[in-house]
C-alpha cells in the first residue's frame, strides 16, 4: 500500500511502504523522486513524509480511543524531532506533546501549539526552566524528584496558582534494549524508585503541597522496544503502586502516563511492531490490573516519539571518495555523517542504505559508510551493501526521522541540512539549510 496515492510503485517497497523504486531506477520517497529533490535542495538533505507522520498519529489516537479509558491521549515526544511544523502537524492530529527543555517549549509555543496539552519532562529542570514553563502555560509538569517538587511548589505559590503535575516513578524494569536507552531501572538518573520507598515518599509530599495538583504517575521504561511485554509489566507495576498510594495516603490516581518506547524497523532484521495490537493488549492488561486492585481505571497517556517520525524520515547524501583497501574494507564517504546522524557513533544503531540514483541495481558492494568529520567513529554503518557507488552518486539512509536532526550538531563547523516535507507528492521546506552566517550568529 503506497503511503501516497501518487506513488509510482514500479517495484515492491524497500523496508517501508513509502520507499519504492521508479521505472528509471530512482528511489522514490512518499512518491517523490529523491534524485530530483537532491538536485533542487542539495545534499545532505532530510526528507519527512507528512502523510506517514499523520498516519502514525492516527494509529495511536484511534487505538487509544478504542482500548483505553476515556480521555486517554498520545503525546508526541518531541525530542525525537523538534521543529515548528512538526508541532503544527501533531496538533492538527489532536495529539498532546511531551517537551523536555525550554527550547522545545519555545518551539512549540512559536508554532501556536496549545501548551495546556504539553507535558514538561526532564530530570533537572532549573528554576529558570520552571518559571519559563509557567510563563508559557505548560499544562503539566512531570516532576522527577523531591527538590524539583519543592521548586515547582515554591514557584506556583509565588504566582498564587496551582500547578498540575505527574510524578515520574521508576518501576524497576529492564526492557532489554540498548543500555543507553534504558531508563526504568532503579539505578537511573530519572525518577523516584518504588523499590527504595522514594516513590511513596514523594507522593506523600506532593499531596501535601498547597499549590500542587497531583494527577497521577508517569514512567518510561526505555526506547526501541519490540514487544508489548515491558509495557504490560510497567502497567501492572504502576497499578500496584497506585493501589499502594491509595491505601497508604488515600489518594486516587486519575492519570497514568506510561511513556514512549515502541520500536521501529530500521533493517530487514527488525520486526514491524504492531502498535494497535500492543495498545489493545495494554488496555486489557490495565483493565484487569485495576479491577484486581479495586481502582477506577485511570486516563492513560503514551508518549511515542521514535514510532511517530522514524520511518517518515530519510536522509540523502552525495557520495564523495570511494576507497577500496584490499584485504580490509571499502569506505564510502558522504557529505554528512555524525553531525546530522550521530546514532551509529552513539549506539552502533543499524540502518538500511540504498544507492538512490541506481536503486534498481543489485546491492553487491560491501562497504562502510563514513561521514566527513575528523573522527574515526564518524560512521553511518559498517557491513552495508549497496550498488557500486561512484563520486557524485546519491546515497539514501532510510528511517532517519527520529533522533537524527534533533541530535544534529555543528561539529567541524558543518551546517545542518534542511528538512523538506513531502505531502501528496509536493515538497516544501520545513527547515532551511544552515548558512555560514547561522554558524557565526552567536560569535562575538
Ligand atoms: C524519550 C522519551 C520518550 C519517547 O521515547 P520513544 O522511544 O522515542 O518513543 C517518551 N517519554 C519520555 C519521558 C522520554 O524520555
Report on this model:
With 444 residues, the chain is α/β, with parallel strands linked by helices. It contains 12 helices and 21 strands. It has 2 domains: 19-49 and 310-440, Lyase, Ornithine Decarboxylase, Chain A, domain 1; 121-304, Alpha-Beta Barrel (TIM Barrel). The strands form 3 sheets. Strands 4, 14, 15, 16, 17, 18, 19, 20 and 21 form a 9-stranded mixed beta sheet that branches. It has an 8-stranded parallel β-barrel with strand order 5-6-7-8-9-11-12-13, surrounded by 5 helices. It starts with 18 loop residues before the first strand and ends with a helix. Mean pLDDT is 95; it is low at 1-10.
User: What are the bound molecules?
Assistant: pyridoxal-5'-phosphate
Structural class: alpha/beta
Quote the beta fraction. 15-25%
Largest sheet data = 9 strands, mixed
CATH class of the largest domain: Alpha Beta
CATH architecture of the largest domain: Alpha-Beta Barrel
Uncertain regions: pLDDT < 50 for 5+ in a row?
A: 1-10
The figure for the number of domains is: 2
The CATH topology of the largest domain: TIM Barrel
The helical percent reads 25-40%
* C-alpha-based Rg, rounded: 23 Å
Beta strand count: 21
CATH superfamily of the largest domain: Alanine racemase
Shape: globular
Amino acid at each position: 500500500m503506497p503511503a501516497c496515492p501518487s506513488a509510482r510503485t514500479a517495484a515492491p517497497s524497500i523496508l517501508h511502504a513509502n520507499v519504492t523504486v521508479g521505472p528509471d531506477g530512482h528511489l522514490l520517497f512518499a512518491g517523490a523522486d529523491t534524485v530530483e529533490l537532491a538536485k533542487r535542495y542539495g545534499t545532505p538533505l532530510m526528507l519527512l513524509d507528512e502523510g506517514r507522520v499523520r498516519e502514525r498519529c492516527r494509529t495511536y489516537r484511534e487505538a487509544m480511543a478504542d482500548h483505553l479509558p476515556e480521555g486517554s491521549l498520545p503525546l508526541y515526544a518531541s525530542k525525537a524531532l523538534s521543529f515548528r511544523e512538526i508541532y503544527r502537524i501533531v496538533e492538527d492530529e489532536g495529539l498532546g506533546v511531551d517537551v523536555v527543555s525550554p527550547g522545545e517549549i519555545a518551539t512549540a509555543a512559536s508554532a501556536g501549539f496549545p501548551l495546556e496539552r504539553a507535558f514538561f519532562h526532564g530530570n533537572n529542570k532549573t528554576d529558570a526552566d520552571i518559571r519559563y514553563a509557567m510563563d508559557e502555560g505548560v499544562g503539566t509538569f512531570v516532576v522527577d524528584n523531591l527538590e524539583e517538587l519543592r521548586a515547582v511548589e515554591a514557584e506556583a505559590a509565588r504566582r498564587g496558582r496551582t500547578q498540575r503535575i505527574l510524578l515520574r516513578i521508576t518501576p524497576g524494569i529492564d526492557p532489554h534494549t540498548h543500555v543507553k536507552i534504558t531508563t526504568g531501572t532503579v539505578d537511573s538518573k530519572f525518577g523516584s524508585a518504588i523499590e527504595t520507598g522514594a516513590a511513596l515518599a514523594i507522593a506523600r509530599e506532593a499531596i501535601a503541597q498547597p499549590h500542587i495538583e497531583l494527577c497521577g504517575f508517569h514512567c518510561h521504561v526505555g526506547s526501541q522496544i519490540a514487544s508489548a511485554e515491558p509495557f504490560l509489566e510497567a502497567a501492572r507495576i504502576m497499578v500496584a503502586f497506585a493501589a499502594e498510594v491509595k491505601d497508604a495516603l488515600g489518594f486516587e490516581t486519575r492519570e497514568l502516563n506510561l511513556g514512549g518506547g515502541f520500536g521501529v524497523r530500521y533493517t530487514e532484521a527488525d520486526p514491524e511492531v504492531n502498535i494497535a495490537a500492543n495498545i489493545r493488549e495494554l488496555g486489557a492488561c490495565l483493565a484487569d490490573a485495576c479491577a484486581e486492585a479495586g481502582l477506577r481505571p485511570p486516563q492513560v497517556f503514551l508518549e511515542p516519539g521514535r514510532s511517530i517520525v522514524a520511518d517518515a524520515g530519510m536522509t540523502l547524501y552525495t557520495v564523495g571518495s570511494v576507497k577500496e583497501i584490499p584485504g580490509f574494507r571499502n569506505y564510502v564517504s558522504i557529505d554528512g555523517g555524525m553531525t546530522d546522524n550521530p546514532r551509529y557513533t552513539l549506539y552502533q544503531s543499524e540502518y538500511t542504505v540504498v544507492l538512490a540514483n541506481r536503486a534498481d541495481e543489485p546491492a553487491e558492494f560491501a562497504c562502510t559508510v563514513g561521514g566527513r568529520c575528523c573522527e574515526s567513529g564518524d560512521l553511518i554503518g559498517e557491513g552495508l551493501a549497496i550498488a557500486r557507488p561512484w563520486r557524485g552518486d546519491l546515497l539514501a539512509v532510510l528511517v532517519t526521522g527520529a533522533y537524527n536532526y534533533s541530535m544534529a550538531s555543528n561539529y567541524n563547523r558543518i551546517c545542518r541540512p534542511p528538512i523538506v516535507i513531502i505531502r501528496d507528492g509536493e515538497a516544501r521546506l520545513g527547515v532551511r539549510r544552515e548558512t555560514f552566517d547561522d554558524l557565526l550568529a552567536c560569535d562575538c
